[in-house]
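A reminder from the course coordinator: this example appears on the midterm review sheet, so study it carefully.

Given structure:
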């Protein structure tokens, strides 16, 4: 499916009229492909410092997976919403927590590492077992599961292990 078709599908699915700041998010490579796809359709896109498609801003960020086009309500521009959110958090005595332990991710990480250790043993029964907690690929998977940057998750997990004396000897 072409990028423009994906955008049009998103526009049909999403309730754009209810959004305060509708925004399209796509990968930089996809944006380059998209520009080439519609060079003959100058009326639909405004390419420049602030690209737009049918009046909707396009944000280019490689955090978006290649091939995905995301239409979302960019509330970061709406300080009233943010102020209201902070006020609600304060009034409702909601506690905002940061960290692997505080967010409850440690058991998830441990379960995923254990699952990967078992998979390695199943696939390579004659090899010496490896501790998959040192695998970049395992941390990429963990990052997706818990919504963290894989490197950051690994760094703080090993810090947690060290600080809590949970390091395997």
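Designed residues:
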């Amino acid at each position: 499916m072409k990028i423009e078709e994906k955008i049009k599908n998103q526009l049909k699915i999403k309730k754009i009229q209810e959004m305060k700041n509708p925004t399209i998010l796509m990968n930089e490579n996809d944006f380059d492909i998209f520009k080439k796809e519609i060079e003959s359709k100058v009326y639909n896109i405004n390419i420049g410092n602030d690209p737009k498609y049918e009046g909707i801003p396009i944000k280019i960020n490689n955090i978006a997976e290649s091939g995905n086009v995301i239409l979302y309500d960019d509330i970061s521009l709406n300080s009233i919403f943010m102020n209201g959110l902070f006020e609600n958090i304060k009034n409702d005595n909601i506690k905002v927590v940061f960290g692997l332990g505080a967010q409850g991710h440690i058991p998830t990480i441990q379960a995923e590492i254990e699952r990967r250790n078992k998979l390695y043993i199943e696939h390579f029964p004659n090899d010496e077992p490896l501790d998959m907690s040192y695998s970049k690929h395992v941390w990429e998977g963990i990052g997706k599961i818990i919504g963290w940057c894989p490197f950051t998750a690994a760094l703080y997990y090993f810090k947690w292990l060290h600080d809590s004396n949970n390091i395997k000897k």
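The chain has two domains: 3-91, 106-163. The mean pLDDT is 78.
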